[in-house]
Amino acid sequence: MPAQERDTSPLVSLIAGGIAGGVEATATGSIAKDGVRFVAFDAIKKSFADPETGVMSPLRNLLAGMCTGVVASTFAVTPTERIKTALIDDARTSKKFKSSFHAIRVIYQGHGLLGLYHGYAGTTLKQAGATAFRMGTYNILKDFEQSRGIAQSTLTNFANGAIAGTVTTYATQPFDTIKTRSQSAKGASTADAFRSILSDHGVRGFWRGTTMRLGRTVFSGGILFTVYEQVAALLRPTLQ
């Protein structure tokens, strides 16, 4: 990866990642937390780069992505996913939550702050794995293309993002399945969720819903990285 792209500032990453996440959310209906992910990844990968050459090997890219996933899960993803999943589950059963804020209040009153972190282990495993594969795969492909003199364009950005989305989906679906079970309205520990899925559906149960999720993640991965690269390219000359 060229030096000027490695030194993308946190402000450029935040704005470009936020815009890319917003466009992705508009197209796919997902919640945009990508500004945080891009800022964290760009900051973390600097500590993983080779001190002499500044090069990021495939393993270093994956490790940087993994650490980024832990940061994102802790500060953004787990609480919001807990509320979202609880609201969806509640709408199918007791309908005791009147709104997102009401759900937060009820969960906090019943379980304290830790109630918002039900499923933290499963969510963090999923985020660490998903971000490692998503950011790592994209940057591995991009580095490979640049080392071969392949010009970066909207088409290559979208293709790399789509491939990264495919790899991520198959690699992290078990974590997503466990997270969803543990963050239901009733709440369950990660271990309990794992055991119940295995008991109900066997090993294949951990990959239930893969096809449906794949259609979204492939498309959103292409959109996310394409928009990020285009916006970052526009912002670097003025904000670096």
Describe the overall structure.
The chain has 240 residues and is mainly α. It contains nine helices and no strands. It has helices at residues 3-6, 10-28, 34-48, 58-92, 100-111, 120-147, 154-182, 190-201, 210-239. The radius of gyration is 19 Å and the shape is globular.
SSE series:
HHHHHHHHH
Number of DSSP-assigned strands = 0
State the helical fraction: over 70%
Main beta sheet strand tally, sense and closure: none
Distance between the termini: 17 Å
Shape: globular
Structural class: mainly alpha
Task: Give the integer mean of the pLDDT values.
Answer: 82
Taken as a percent bin, the fraction of beta residues is under 5%
Rounded radius of gyration (Å): 19 Å
Low-confidence segments, ≥5 residues, pLDDT <50? Answer: 1-6, 26-31
